[in-house]
Design a protein that fits this description.
Helix 7 links the parallel strand 5 and strand 6. The chain has 2 domains: about 80 residues, Leucine Dehydrogenase, chain A, domain 1 (Rossmann fold), CATH 3.40.50.10860; about 120 residues, Rossmann fold (3-Layer(aba) Sandwich). It is globular and about 50 Å long. The chain has 10 helices and 11 strands. The protein is α/β, with parallel strands linked by helices. Helix 2 crosses helix 10. The chain has a 6-stranded parallel beta sheet. A 3-stranded parallel beta sheet has the order 3-2-4, sandwiched between helices.
Length: about 290
């Protein structure tokens, strides 16, 4: 068996085209502000790609680049300005922030109504209380987990009644995606660095989401034949980028698998755009 590759680039491009068509019919331009603190090269690449994506779908895009020696108080003041800016529907502060910043306080300063990555405690609370997910194109949820569910959905595999294992328990990916899978009636196990016999746990899974940040942790002997494997990891190994899944061997065992790069990454940006559009509709209709 050779797994079918889940083409995140193709699925994301289709979503972006759909968003662009809808934006063209609106009387306003949804606005996204991305705040970058410092000069981290990877963060600069991410921010520039988000700005380009906004331009492609017809959004109003605002990139705010601030020095790394900015104070916490000054950063919070910038966020307050964006909260009050009627042209801005979504706000994203690029993480990670330089040392010395309290990331939780920064996220909490963003208005929940403009929190495009849905990481504000109010928005995470709303997600936590969901008994059943709405249609994914109407769901406001953290961008990467939302993209993961869209990728799983694209396979035609029903999440209900399936066993899912999420490897990784971060606030950004692991915890939200586990909650969302539960709301789709999957039976979910969360695994992490203290999990005993990870191989045994993963072999039970119809769906594996690998989001722990450890290169090629998931190997073929850990994957049930025919499982859906979603690789969230981005790790630099011997001058190349690899995921948390040993792609070459797992591809021969799984039913569906995402590549790295070209899997989850493009979907994260596409879902950022979709969330911005949803926030704009909420904001402009209020």
């Amino acid at each position: 068996m050779t797994a079918q590759i889940i083409d995140g680039k193709k699925i994301a491009q289709s979503l972006r085209e759909k968003i662009a068509q809808e934006v063209a019919s609106l009387a306003y331009k949804p606005g996204l502000a991305v705040v970058l603190v410092g000069e981290d090269p990877a963060s600069q690449i991410y921010v520039n790609s988000k700005e380009k994506a906004c331009q492609e779908v017809g959004f109003h895009s605002q990139k705010i680049v601030l020095p790394a020696d900015l104070s916490q108080t000054q950063l919070l003041a910038e966020i307050v300005k964006l909260n009050q800016d009627s042209a801005i529907d979504g706000i994203l502060v690029q993480m990670p922030l330089p040392k010395g910043f309290d990331e939780e306080s920064v996220i909490a300063a963003i208005s929940p109504a403009k929190d495009v990555d849905c990481l504000h405690p109010v928005n995470l609370g709303k997600l936590f209380t969901l008994k059943k997910l709405p249609a994914l194109d109407q769901l406001l949820a953290p961008c990467t987990p939302k993209g993961i569910l869209k990728l799983i959905d694209s396979t035609g595999v029903t999440m209900a009644n399936k066993t899912a294992v999420v490897v990784g328990r971060s606030q950004l990916v692991g915890k939200p995606v586990a909650i969302m899978l539960l709301a789709q009636d999957a039976t979910v196990t969360m695994a992490h660095s203290h999990t005993q016999d990870l191989t045994k746990v993963c072999l039970q899974a119809d769906i594996i989401v690998a989001a722990v940040g450890k290169a090629q942790l998931i190997t073929a002997d850990m994957v049930k034949p025919g499982a859906v494997v979603i690789d969230v990891g981005i790790n630099r190994l011997e001058q190349k980028i690899v995921g948390d899944v040993e792609f070459a061997t797992v591809q021969e065992q799984a039913g569906f698998i995402t590549p790295v790069p070209g899997g989850v990454g493009p979907m994260t940006i596409a879902c950022l755009l979709e969330n911005t559009l949803l926030l704009a509709k909420n904001h402009r209709s209020a």
